[in-house]
Amino acid sequence: MFFRNRTEKCFCCLTGLVTFDPCQSPQSAEDQISPLLILMLKKNWYLFTPLAIVGLPAFVLAYYILAFGYPINEAVEAVSHFFKSSTRYSMKYSADHFSAIRPGMDGKQVFDYLGVPFERRNNDAEWFYSLPQGSAKAYHERKIIFDRDAKNVPHVKEVVKSFHAPK
Predict the structure, then answer these.
(1) Among 20, 35, 126, 144, which one is least packed by beta carbons within 10 Å?
(2) CATH class of 84-164
(3) Confidence class of residue 41 from pLDDT cuts 50, 70 and 90?
(4) Domains of the chain, residue spans
């Protein structure tokens, strides 16, 4: 490499194991590698088809697991309904605010964080912050289940963050 003088050749250059001279500066080595890579991609582009077929769904699956926090089975369900799902959220809904909701919080705190829910069901025991968009059957369900104490004040019992798909 750079410790050799220009007249002395290294083992790689003498044996011809590489098509470029690694003793040269990195810039000239990169210049010689790039055309080889481009030529290989032009002639063998079809080798990347399996990568696209497996890689894109795997990327979407990883996105659902990391961004939405879904377990693997729900993430697989979400990927299988990728083009068929559509979700609408309530006006003040924010994923960060929804993640801040914890069991034990009272209804006023939840209302301050997330605003008015789309629907309240079961005598205000369930607040829905997401619903399917239009005619879609699959959507990202965001629901808070409340339990009332002795003074009839609602407290968060459970926070539901899942993918809802028709059976």
Answers:
(1) 35
(2) alpha beta
(3) confident
(4) 11-43, 52-80, 84-164
